[in-house]
Amino acid sequence: RSASSPAKDERFYPRLTIDSKENSIMHSSPHQFKLGSLSVCYLYSEEYIRLCNKLPKIPNRASMVHSLLEAYGLLDPITVLRCRKATQHELTSFHTTDYIEYLQKINDEDDSEKVDEMSQEYGMGYDCPSMPGVYDLVGCVAGATIQAAQCLLDGTADVAINWFGGWHHAKRDEAAGFCYVNDVVLGILKLKEKFNRIMYIDIDLHHGDGVENAFSFTSKVMTVSLHKYAPGFFPSTGNQNDIGIGRGKFYTVNVPLYDGIQDVQYNSVFNRVLNEAKRCYNPEVIVLQCGVDTISGDPMCSFNLTPHGIGKCLKTTLDWKLPMLVLGGGGYNIPHTARCWAYLTSIVLGQEIPSEIPEHEYFTEYGPDYQLEIEPSLRKNHNSDEYISNILTTISGNLQKIPSPTS
Ligand SMILES: O=C(CCc1ccccc1NC(=O)c1cccc(C(F)(F)F)c1)NO
Ligand SMILES: [Zn+2]
After folding, report:
1. Ligand 1 atom index nearest CA of 166
2. Residue 113: what pLDDT?
3. Which helix (H) or strand (E) holds 150?
4. What is the block-wise mean pLDDT of the chain (407 residues), using blocks of 10 residues?
């Protein structure tokens, strides 16, 4: 135990017993996570999956993710929790009542013309098409993330996973960027009931603006986002000088990057920024938004990462041995998204999984290779080493200004 952090409850530390029956085959392969078994919970329900499947830009993605996890046997050592819907009271702990009542009103309305009159007011339009059942969907996504957070509060899990959450753009009074509810903010508000210092890490291609805006005034939540930052690229916020305001000054960290970044450079940036942020802030719990629209082969065609590189980011944070809430997000090459989140789940479990995609309902979607691994594309990297080193210097300078806990 490091002297600086108060003695922590045993529950939050990975149990280092190796229960061979239940848990994984432990290999000593280089990328194998340390021996040990975490208690992991995963939020799921048939209705939740069915509603997520209907999202226009990621058709059937939820089913493909869930089926691949099952096919790899990754759900066997995991506590699979049936998720409940968030109540209106829970939803309005962040969102406005007007907005939530609007979603309720259009939930059963399938005459989209009629809906569109009101829709502009609440951000429902091109980016977030109004869809029948949207209130049911919002209740499931938010309910799942809130329940996952509750598991960490109760200590019934070391890591809680909701791969169908992570909708980081939604604002309190409107949908944005294809997000109808900000389940991330709701999960963090739940964690705040018990934890004093929460670190939010967002590795989606897009800036986690909705979450940053919700907590830019407070030092209770440090938000760290690594994302593409380019003129006209959504949401076009999150440059390195965006560091929070008032009491929240220095507790917002942004790492703006250009197209083409690959695993090695990304991992080096991630480790430098996050290990320094951890040292300066000493968080008690981690929320990680794992949008994977950063993968080579994603139609966003921006970053050039692979699941291996993203997995290394996850390992860095898991090595801190702090309770973690792990969420999904973007990812528009659907088989690649399923591959990546299956691989990340295997890392959380410390369980090696074979490269061959196992036979299952969606097996044909993984052709022509039917392999788990994804190769980087042959695309130019626009992130020069001096650009990266300048960003790191700026961020390090800002983090140093965080008052140390003893002061
Ligand atoms: O991934 C997101 C949302 C991306 C987004 C923000 C605002 C408006 C539209 C989008 N989504 C897309 O542009 C999108 C979504 C799915 C698929 C595509 C595709 F055209 F690249 F395939 C594009 N946030 O992390
Ligand atoms: Zn994204």
Report:
1. 25
2. 66
3. helix 134-154
4. 41 40 37 59 96 92 98 97 96 97 88 67 78 92 98 96 98 94 98 97 98 98 98 97 97 98 98 98 97 98 98 97 97 98 97 97 97 98 98 98 79
Share of the chain above pLDDT 90, in %: 82
Provide the token pair at 194.
């018990």
Helix axes 334-349, 307-318, angle to 10 degrees: 30
The residue among 354, 300, 403, 378 whose CA lies nearest residue 25 is 354
Asked if residue 158 has its Cβ within 6 Å of ligand 1, the reply is no
Q: Is 89 a catalytic residue?
A: no
Structure tokens belonging to residue 21: 């029956």
Ligand 1 pocket check for 204: Cβ under 6 Å: yes
pTM over 0.80, yes/no = yes
316: exposed, middle or buried (Cβ count in 10 Å: 0-12, 13-18, 19+): middle
Above 0.90 for ipTM, yes or no? yes
- Give bridge partners of residue 326 from the DSSP assignment: 161, 288
Q: In the chain, helix, strand, coil percent, each to 5?
A: 40, 15, 50
Pocket residue to mutate for ligand 1, from 234, 237, 303, 336, most atoms within 8 A of Cβ: 234
Query: What is the separation of C-alpha 1 from the centre of its chain, rounded to a whole number of angstroms?
Result: 27
Cα gap 286→12, rounded to integer Å:
12
CA distance 302 to 307: 15
Rounded Cα distance, 41 and 309, in Å: 24
Q: Are 252 and 212 in contact (CB under 8 A)?
A: yes
